[in-house]
Every structure is written in C-alpha cells, then in structure tokens.
Write a structure and sequence with these properties.
Order of helices and strands: HHHEEEEEEEEEEHHHEEHH
Low-confidence stretches: 223-245
Strand content: 15-25%
Largest sheet: 5 strands, mixed
Helix content: 25-40%
Mean pLDDT: 87
Distance between the termini: 55 Å
Radius of gyration: 27 Å
Shape: elongated
Number of helices: 8
Bound molecules: heme C, copper (II) ion
CATH superfamily of the largest domain: Cupredoxins -  blue copper proteins
C-alpha cells in the first residue's frame, strides 16, 4: 500500500515537471468535483422523487429551464477553454528551444539508445547532462518508431526514422533519471532503457574535459568497457575508442563528407554562389523558397534538403540538387548537419 502511494511522489526533476503536474492536478480535481456533483445529485434525486404511496401523483411535464441550460453550457465551455489554454501555454514552452542549449544527438535503435555529444563523445544507454542548463536532444531512429520518455521530467517525444524530432529540457535535480522507450518497437522494447545522469555543471565540464584529454593522448576510456556489457551482442559498439589520436568532431567529419560526397561542386561555404546557394550562415536563418514561402533552416530542413531536395527549393535556384536518400547513412546526415550548423548562424 505504501508502495502504491509512492507513485504520487515521482520526483519533479525538470523545469516542466511541476507545471505539468499542476495542470494534471487541475484536470483531476475538476473531474473529481464534477463526478461528486453528478453522483451526489443523482442519489439525492433518486431518493427525493422515489415512488410513494399506492396511487402516486403523475410527474408534471417539464419544458426546460433556459437560464440553467445556458449557464451550464457556458461554465463548461469556460473550464474546457481554460484547460486548453493552460495546456497550450505549457506545450509551447516544451517545444521551444532555448538559445545556447547543450545539444546532444540521440539515436534510438532496436533496442538501445545512443547519445553523441558535439565533441564526438558517444555513449550508450547513459548520458550525463548538467543541472540547470537547457539541453536539446536532436533525435532520430535507425529503424522503427521509438519514443523517448523521462517520467521524472514529465517529458516524452516520439523518435522516428527519416526525420529529426527534438526534446528540450532543463534538469533541476541531480541524480539518475530513468529513460523508457514508450513506443512498442519489438521483442526487447521493455529493455530499451537508458539513464540520464544529471550532475552539477562543474562535474559535467570535468567529465567532458577528462575524456577530451584522454582522447588526445590515445587512452582507452573506461566508458567503452563499461557500456559494452549492457549491449546486445552483434552490434558494433559506437562507444569504443576510435584508433587515432585527436577526438573527431561530428562537424569535422561532416566537413570531410562535404568534399567526399561532391557537395563542393555546387555549394561554397564562403558566401559565393555556385550552382547552389552558399551554405554559410544558412542554419538558423530564414530561407526564401520558390513558392514565396519562408522557412527557418533547422536540423529537419537541412536533412530534408539532402533526402528530398525538390520538396523545398530555394528561391532563385534550379531544382537540380540530386537526392542523397539511400546514399548517405543517418550518421553521415547527422555529421553534415553538424557541419552546416558550424558554418555560422
Ligand atoms: C548538382 C549540384 C548540387 C550538389 C552536388 C549538391 N547540391 Fe545542395 N543544392 C543545390 C541547389 C541548386 C540548391 C538550391 C535549390 C534547392 O533547394 O533544391 C541546393 C540546396 C541545398 C541546401 C539548402 C540550402 C539553403 O540555402 O536553404 C542544402 C542544405 C544543401 N543543398 C546541402 C547539400 C549538401 C550537404 C550536399 C552534398 C551532400 C549537396 N547539397 C549537394 C545543388 C547541389
Ligand atoms: Cu524502442
């Protein structure tokens, strides 16, 4: 029984948690009070107008009472709109990225979670994040639908193949927070678990610094050995150290791909216009399209430019960019996005 009540004590570990709980409590109590009004009212009327005597008088014909009906409708409408507005305000906050967020790429695959930091550090089923700092997870799936769910944060976001979804949060409590996959994704779905470890910002900095130094010295990080145990066999361990010294940044890998995949034939990164637009300063800025609409170049826009270049064509250019669907692996797309992002925004 005591264990049962523990579910009401789920920690509120992100800035959103308290707000979601407040809305949830409001909906709960509105429902509870309505329920009591209906049930008590019903019981009272059943008793008050019960059949009495041997020859009961006939019930008078009721024609309705407009003021009552209208006020019930109005009150219900106000309550529903209040819930809608409240939810809309919270939802807007959830989906709005804070500028200067710490970005982490997340890949869901059957049946684990991979994390990649902008310095190239990869972890599996475990990620460290600093307390009090906005974090932005840029998520994609390598296979089927997954969903990244952190109950302690009261946040959940579907992870889909072929596009990015994002999850923004600011953790306010240190400690380990459980991540679940909340979208049935096959046999080991229930084992698709990860831990988000929230630490003080100084500790986070130290954790990254140590790794960066180790990498530049070519030391095997302890992390790789640790996490390989929890991985199903037969999958290459992305946390395993790469041979070679300096840490390879996703943006640097993207830069190499940019040349290797022939993007340089049509795109400069200096501002000069070739067959295609220069990719300098595109990310995060508005792009004019040939159907006279405008769009802000975010991760998904860049991704779509690579996989379906004809869907959104930049104004003043011919739709001649070839599709890279099938040619570029998901990791390569992530790297190219990181590179284009690094070209200034
Ligand atoms: C044959 C020439 C050509 C090649 C090769 C090419 N592109 Fe393009 N690209 C274009 C053209 C033309 C446009 C503008 C028209 C459009 O949006 O489709 C464009 C648009 C883009 C955009 C949108 C830019 C903006 O300003 O909104 C991105 C991002 C992009 N390309 C990235 C790449 C990357 C990365 C590669 C290499 C993997 C690549 N392109 C290869 C011709 C090319
Ligand atoms: Cu899953």
């Amino acid at each position: 029984m005591i264990q049962f009540f523990k579910i009401f004590e789920l920690p509120r570990s992100s800035t959103m948690a308290g707000k979601i709980d407040a809305l949830y409590d409001f909906v709960f109590w509105v429902s509870m009070i309505s329920f009591l009004i209906i049930v008590i009212g019903m019981v009272y009327f059943v008793w008050r107008y019960r059949r009495r005597g041997v020859t009961p008088e006939p019930t008078p014909y009721i024609t309705g009472h407009t003021p009552t009906e209208v006020s019930v409708a109005v009150v219900l409408f106000i309550i529903v709109m209040a819930i809608f507005y409240w939810g809309w305000v919270d939802y807007t906050e959830i989906i709005t990225s804070k500028p200067g967020s710490l970005e982490i790429n997340v890949t869901g695959r059957q049946w684990l979670w991979e994390f990649e930091y902008t310095n190239g550090r990869k972890t599996v089923n475990e990620a460290l994040v600093p307390k009090g700092q906005p974090v932005k997870l840029i998520m994609g799936s390598a296979d089927v639908l997954h969903s990244f769910y952190v109950p302690d944060f009261r946040l959940k976001q579907d992870v889909v193949p072929g596009a990015y979804t994002k999850l923004d949060f600011t953790a306010i409590q240190t400690g380990e927070h459980q991540v679940f996959c909340a979208e049935y994704c096959g046999t080991a779905h229930s084992k698709m678990l990860a831990k988000l470890k929230v630490v003080e910002p100084e500790e986070y900095q130290k954790w990254q610094k140590t790794w960066e130094v180790e990498q530049s010295l070519g030391v095997q990080p302890a992390q790789a050995a640790e996490s390989s145990e929890s991985r199903p066999t037969g999958i290459e361990n992305p946390a395993a150290p790469r041979h070679g010294a300096a840490p390879e940044l996703p943006a640097e890998r993207g830069k190499a791909l940019f040349t290797a995949k022939g993007c340089t034939a049509c795109h400069s990164v200096t501002g000069q216009i070739l067959v295609g637009p220069s990719l300098k300063g595109v990310f995060g800025h508005e792009v004019d399209l040939n159907d006279d609409s405008r769009i802000t170049a975010d991760e998904n826009y860049i991704r779509e430019s690579l996989t379906d270049p004809q869907l959104k064509v930049v104004k003043g250019f011919q739709p001649v960019m070839p599709t890279y669907k099938g040619t570029l692996k998901d990791e390569e797309i992530n790297d190219l996005v990181a590179y284009i992002k690094s070209l200034g925004n």
